[in-house]
């Protein structure tokens, strides 16, 4: 042992050593568990899946209950507050969150695609963001739009985004669709592939999606601003647009193999496979009275073998096992049937496209004529959708079932070719409502709000808002509590901007 | 006070009077009670200014006048003042320690031993004998009632359970608020093995601070405030629990090496401390829903008991069980067994004059009260110190721990045991359900047609015996922790480097059994309610590393007779790294293929791994710090201590990551001024006042200041999720939380003042402290409106204040020469917590939110205030619905909190010769907790309150209803049906405020009787001492009448979590009692 050892010097040396490497030593705070970057190919499917979950779960459940396809089962309790028209403060927190999250991801996708000059991804992100914001504003009316999605510091750290009027949102999304149209090029060198869960990168189909979405948006304004709606439609038709037809349907497809189950079925599994929703007699009775074979698609027969609905909201009754029909696996509504996992989530369908065109024709806003033909084609498209897209529906066989239905003398198949516009729209929208049974519930309820059709909805037996219907989603508590720009709560009976009928 | 000043002046005057005479030199040595030289003792000639201090070896030389009868005054810290008449040329004095409570050495921050009188802040030391008086199996739980200022909560009170220890209130919203656990100077990893922090299906494997066996502990010192623990930096912001383990002892120089062997065996039996009480009038049934035959129901909403024989359960092959329709008392207790626990401890220790050696082995084997549960722990501890030549020395301290346990599922987990039990109607004999092979109890058997059937009576719940047997949750931890130091000490200088490590490998497995059975009796039991579950398997591997290096230089010098200095400088390097890997076959996502084969190859669906950012697989945290501590003393009477620490943290960015925080504290042992007075001799023999001022900064959690980043994470809806890749297509979404890059550290400033007094020659000792803390710049995730695209933003948000008083008392009313001694002791703790401010626009932040109960940090309220719906009041009247007569639920509001108003303890030791009786009571008063036990028992109609008015309709007392939608109210006369209230309002949680229960309790925490067998009985045996005793801990609980449900300390949100006060069918806490024998050789 060297007796001349100087502890003080050793100490100083160690200290110095410590400080000189300090910066490097402390540089460990970049989260290794999350990726700092993403690619357009990974962002696009995520954003589409989030949208699929929002549309397939909360929008479908609330839309299908308030759209009177379904009602709460007396044997369970999950959606009592919806059926009673008294949503809890956070009833619509999940769809609000999922829709904005989806929009945020499309916004990030747009920015990334812009940086990387990937035009088709830009176009898709614009279209999907427009589609998403139409859902948001149709659900809640005035919503954050221009200042929305900019929470992160890099995007401006806007943490109290202002609420824009619904008209501003509509103008914004129309502009976005126009921008997208300028970018769409099916022959672009960079096209999405399997990462585009809706069209697999087929930009021709996205062009049809764009046109059909524009039609849907403009027609929504048909009552509040007919001039603008008509002008827009005239301009759209001037481009000789192609619309979504059979085989172009925009949906997210699911399966049973792994983590790709229909999100509504995943929700039902999460609720221990309890059958919460059953058939509402509003829809079942009207389908039965028209001998509508599609009842086989949208519902399961009751224990007796017959199709039996329960009056809307009639859940405070003694319950017998198997008493009522339930929504079928084809709309993911059979909570105990694993095949429900296969049901798609529809975003924009061929029959919806044709019903929209039928309405344009009925209104005479474009020189296309043939509204009764388009009406029949739309119904046929719905039959075809459930024989071609979902091939396992055995109860109907395409054309013959359709023909039998159309010639069966049912009230809702006898289109008033010479009737008033109102009577025509009554048939077009009511048939659209039949077609969207449990598969586009939010859109059907929204069209009922816009047009008042079908005109045979009944007030829920357990309505807590008297003889009123719910007309909107309510804002979630989190928005109220944490957004300083929050304008105030709106009751469930308050109508949204375009709802003037 | 005036009188004291006068005395002071008189003494000073006396002191200045001097002699001028012929002198001689008096030499001598002052030794402590162990015979070791005592340096720095004052030696003076009474009535003069002549004096000196002893050197490092305790030797002194003093020139004193010849002839006269010199009185030599010896003053030594911790030994008081002694006067001895000179009788010759040399004077050798062996000192005896004086004040048991208020003097002596204390382990302080960085494991530096200091005289208690020097400290300007409060500390509490609990020695081994006090700690283990109740023979509990957890060192932290054993502190309950012994430390003023500590809020200690033990969830199960039994082996392997969780213990939370918070000192002087919660100071952070996001960061852990538990006290730092330090073993022999090294910060340990107090990781929480609790799964599912959302609490609905929590499984409690305990927290790792309980790994240290109480028998291995020499003493625990609790540093309550930042003033005491500031030198630990950020980690010490919450105070510290300093555990000193047992070491070997030096032999006296020249004596042969010393050997101690200790063996101790402890046997403990455990039972449930508190069962929920149930009503005894109504049995199974649902007469209010119109169900005629409801043998499958979990409801006790049936008709009144008639004690008639009645068939029950399912009809299987035409056969049915029959039993009287009558109440079964003590039904729950049939399910639980006696927990049994055998703890063996053996240690070998010794030492020469230069080295010490210690080795101990501990084993603990226990069976829990729930069938199939167990907790086993094995521990080896080794430590050694040696003094090398050339002034070098080194120490080694290593501890290996293995624990292996199986615990029952809790909460809403499908296998949750309490949940199943509470859903058994009050007339169904639980004990009769134990034979799972009996078809009437079976959850799954094959019928004649090859169909899986269940014969168990319940449609909605599982047979609890089946759940306890097949839901299999295990934890296996291997852990090595220890510290190693080497140093050089010469004269006044001491420099040493200490490395501390704590390495943990922890594997937990969760097995969910497969079940897919139809009811046997399809006529009564709905086919819609089969018992189905695909079976699942989860394994979580956790590896934790804690590494510390401290390099410390210390200089101690007595500058003059009056002034002394003790200076310390050091640096610290800290690294923390956690790795988590979870693999999961989700039972609700196709699950296992072959039932009962728990392997990750036995899958149909995907095997998912942990999903960042919700679960971080890797987390790294590093700091570097330099610090200094300078202590000055004046005549060993006035002390001043200045500390400063500068820290650099990895979790903050350059520019914000360097922060300095100073502290100062002072103490004055004012009774030194009274030396020689009657007042001091007879009344106040020791008195000290102290004051401390300190600040501590706390950095952010790792990655809190990062931008959002992207993850391939689950796409969630309220109850379901899709986990990509989706059909082999990878999908990355932007994460929903991000942090401000310029996060500043949280800063806690505290001042404390206090006094330690000892009266009547230590017959009564009192310690009092008042403290006032303010924590600034709290870092937390503030909820964002979803329209921003995000959910949480980590920013600096606000301030939390904690103020309070701590009092410890100890008295000895009786102490006789013939061996009878009676000691009394107690503590009182009062903390006022207040969330002072949060960021603009945010008034409250959720610490947790489940089942409609938010546990909040809300401005103007104590930390942990509940936020939920309750009754609606109008001018003191309850507002009810005019048509149903039922109370109208209010909007969610802030009410109650999990904070106790005060805590106290009271204990006594009665000793007669070698027999000792020890009793300790503890209490927490005030505060509330959410009881799902209440909610569920109300829902199923088993709770006592559900029998109000014999279940007939009645008018809600003092109720009004609103006239239309106007603002006017009229007296209500509508009757409500109790069934509707208990099932549809309380039972479904729409008025959760009514399920908040008063959390006050008094516990008989410890009672023990021990006997040290006098040596005369075994003088010729190899035994050195022989001791035996009986004991109990967590023995009895008294709760307010309104709490008919749980021990309020049971907790579902994890023992170390920030949100507390939620009991979601947590497993019951235990009453423990047993006997021990301890021998030394």
What keyword list fits this structure?
heterodimer; A: 501 residues; mainly alpha; Serine Threonine Protein Phosphatase 5, Tetratricopeptide repeat; two-stranded antiparallel sheet; two-stranded antiparallel ribbon; 8 strands; disordered N terminus; B: 1081 residues; mainly beta; 22-stranded antiparallel β-barrel; five-stranded mixed beta sheet; 8 helices; 67 strands
Architecture overview:
- The complex is a heterodimer of chains A (501) and B (1081).
- Chain A is mainly alpha-helical and 501 residues long.
- Chain A has one domain (6-259, 343-482): Serine Threonine Protein Phosphatase 5, Tetratricopeptide repeat (Alpha Horseshoe).
- In chain A, 48% of the residues lie in helices and 4% in strands.
- Chain A is built from 18 helices and 8 strands.
- Chain A has helices at 7-20, 22-26, 40-66, 80-83, 93-115, 119-140, 166-183, 203-220, 226-237, 263-270, 281-289, 295-298, 350-363, 371-389, 398-406, 421-435, 441-451, 477-482; strands at residues 70-72, 143-144, 163-164, 250-252, 277-279, 299-300, 326-327, 345-348.
- In chain A, helix 7 runs antiparallel to helix 8 (203-220).
- The termini of chain A are far apart.
- Mean pLDDT of chain A is 91; it is low at 1-11.
- With 1081 residues, chain B is mainly β.
- Chain B is built from 8 helices and 67 strands.
- The radius of gyration of chain B is 33 Å and the shape is globular.
- The two termini of chain B are 54 Å apart.
- Classes of the chains: A mainly alpha (501), B mainly beta (1081).
